[in-house]
Amino acid sequence: MVFAAPNEALARAEELLGADPAPLHASIAHQVIGIWQRDFGDTRQALAHLRRARDLAARADSAEREADVLATLGVALVHSGRTREGLAAFERGVARGSGHTRARVLYRRAYVWWVLGRHREALEDVRRAIPVLRQADDVIWTARALTLRATVHLALGAVERADADFTEAEALWDTTGQEHDKADAVESRGLAAFRSGDVPTALRLLDEAEERYAKLGTPTFMLTIRRCEVLMAAGLATEALAEADGAIAALDGIGGQSTRKAELLLVAARAARLAGEAQTALARAAVAVRLFAGQRRTWYETHARLVLIEARVATGHGSGRLVADAAAVAERLAAFGAPAAPEASLLAGRIALGLGWTADAERHLAVAARSRHGGPPLARMTGWAAQALRARAAGSARGVLEACRRGLDVLDDHLMTLGASELRARATAQGAELAALAQRASLVSGGPRRLLVWSERWRATVLTAPPTRPPADPVLLSAMTAFRELAARADDARTGGGRPVPALEREQRRLEREIRSRTLHMRGEAPGDGDRFDVARLLDRLGDDVRLVELAVLDGRVHVLLCGQGRVRRFEAGLLAEAEREAEHVQAGLRRLAHPGAEARLPLVEAAGARLQELLLGPAAAHLGTGPVVVVPPGRLHRVPWALLPALRERVLSVSPSASSWLRAKETAPPPGGRQVLVRGPGLASGGAEVPELAGRYGAPEGGRAYPPSAAGGYGAPGGAEEADAGRARGSRRTGARPGATAPDGGRTRGPQAGGPGDTAVGPPDGPAPGRRPTLLEADDARVPRVLRELDGAALAHIAAHGTFRADSPLFSSLRMADGPLIVHDFERLDRSPYRIILSCCDTARFASVGADELLGLVTALLPLGTAGVVACSAPVNDAAVVPLMLALHKGLDAGLSLAEALRDARAALPGDAVHQATGWAFSAFGAA
Q1: Which of 33, 322, 851, 862 is least buried, going by the fewest C-beta atoms within 10 A?
Q2: According to the model, what pLDDT value does residue 842 have?
């Protein structure tokens, strides 16, 4: 019972001891309490109870009982770090037991061998145990032994053998009531899925196992270790570090197993290194090495030394001693049969190359390169990285590019197995080194065209295919509905001058974790080879007038690739770090200018724009011609207000995450019918004044609803299923706004009559035209399910709502609707997002830069879903100044202009004061519509 119902088993064992039992029965009770304390509590208490159980078994003169207790004691001793004593206990247990009992002792010793990383000894003991357990028809222990053997196979990279054992063990568990072991089987299948490269399935199974353990009250330290490994492979290293550190604190709090602490420290060190926290990685790895050494766990100690060396290299160290250390680690890992051996050889070769030791580097890299032809995707990428470094050392640019191409193809295939756009974006970090190597080789030998191809090869790759549509999961949909409701209640508490109830916030965070977790479970649908970038096609679409400026960053310096007039030219600009600092200064200036009274800062902001131009465009600014310009910046420059740069200020200007993305937007056809949607969210300081003004301008009489409901559902139509409901609003808002703002023609903004708006069909200023009757959603109509239904497949959507950017979780960035936040996850449920979208609120053009060169945010979520053009804002802006900008923007669209053309003209139409100028600069046009 101690695994199936641990707390009940503990209570019954204590009750039995209270009845003064015979030594044999008392031995069993103390053993049960010892197992409970070993796995769920304090290992010191566990050892005391197990030693008492051993002594009582000896008094009862039962050799079989004593052998069984010695096996349990051996496991506890090893977990407490007393490896020599633990192995000695097993020796006595094997000698005292016989037949069936000895098989159980051998199984537990095999488990200890696995804990110690001595896999060959583990396989030998479990090989001896399984036939005896089968013969005794011991279903539970046979299933445990098969699960253990599968786990050992996984550690050695034998995934197919592991799958066979897991499958057989699971069939046996189905015949028992051992809920703990059933949960362990689910966890093991998750591990197997991970080792085979299936990250979404691994996350799903590990989450399922965690739910099962929670019902049993079972600690999940081993599960945490495995989950952290999967998170790291998915590019979520920061989350893995937080989980590992939290588990270490919890384990210390209960005086738990020393072995588990060492393993958690190792996984925390790896996560810290991948998250770029080299000093943290050094500290965690050093402690892990000491613990593993004291526990005589050479397998794990060697892995910890590998992370320690990687962390030292990351802090800038490189020496002959480190080359030797990495080579020794690689040799030991290879002797163990550990899959990480090529990684260590790659590290040794990389350090040697840095020192100029080409012969040593070639020797180590050749060993690492062998892994490129087999194994899981990330192992093959290690091999291709080694092959690329070999080619670079040999001076073969062609060899570098071929190896990088093959390695990135492997990663492309891996990314397509991931359904969640967040996972795809973050996992691209695995290819950053290959992309950088290819760009350097292109710069040296291939000219600007080749550099453009390789810049595009690894820029905004997540946008090349739409994310997998979230499943119609009732649990997910229910969680999103509940989350939206809670977020709305919390926001009401904040805006009411109070603070939300802590219980609300806790539940909100729990639901957010559940939504995100279920989203990460989605498997991708590989679309095939995809559409490869073609420079000639790009130049043909640009023609003679349009210039596309792609900024590539190599070794910290910005290189400008100027495309147009049938050619690609390269210019060197400034340092990326300096440009990032200047962009932050500009953002701070724009925030100040959103408030009246900061006019004196306008010249400072304009001067900063001139400095940004020098750093980002350099001499290329003089070669832009006179036509439209498309800027393709790297992810780290997404905060730049490009319209502020002097050379771009008066131009038709658009921004795109990649040249490929711009091409797709350019070639995207608008949907038939030209359906338009106007949405006004609650709580705006200006009341979203431009929305009723637009409705009135297009032909609706002031204060009324003159046109019938739209075919999409009509006024008063039920909201439908609460699909895709989730989000979190934090009250980010525009500043200094006032209701009834003055329109450019001097008139006042107009609102609907009392009682709420309907779907008002409107047309251009000279009267409504068929197919040009927008749906107006405001007040209670502006609820997320209704808004999503109307947005799906629209030609144009204008949304005035509070925008909130979530740097901690970008896909929970939101627009506030009547019933709560409309989040990025909601948009991903659309069959086709609107062809054009205007977002007249703050922070909608903010992104999180993740992975190799990816952006996560509202705009980048829309572009793969059918949206060809977006107007959005990257800074807090003034409400009153937004209204005339938006009205002027729509005037240009009515005249047949593109978003970029209309935005240029709208900026020019604004008054010349600082507030209006800053507002115009804060908005950008994305895409090509």
Answers
A1: 322
A2: 74
